[in-house]
Design goal:
The protein has no helices and four strands. With 65 residues, the chain is mainly β. The radius of gyration is 27 Å and the shape is elongated.
């Protein structure tokens, strides 16, 4: 893409265990099987260029003496 733009795509899967719950006071039962699938898209724009680490005006360590 253009120099200041970047894009990304993510896929996330979450699988939770099967759960069964029987309620003893009533003849009811609850079964659960939860799985989540997510797809995420991202578009980023970089506002400023990287500043080189050796450019003038940046503080640096003094030489070992």
């Amino acid at each position: 893409m253009a120099p200041h733009w970047s894009a990304r795509v993510e896929y996330l899967y979450t699988g939770l265990d099967n759960r069964n719950k029987i309620f003893p006071a009533t003849p009811e039962a609850f079964d659960s099987n939860l799985s989540l699938h997510q797809v995420r898209f991202g578009l980023n724009y970089k506002l400023f260029d990287d500043i080189p680490s050796n450019s003038a005006g940046l503080p640096t360590k003094a030489p070992a003496g």
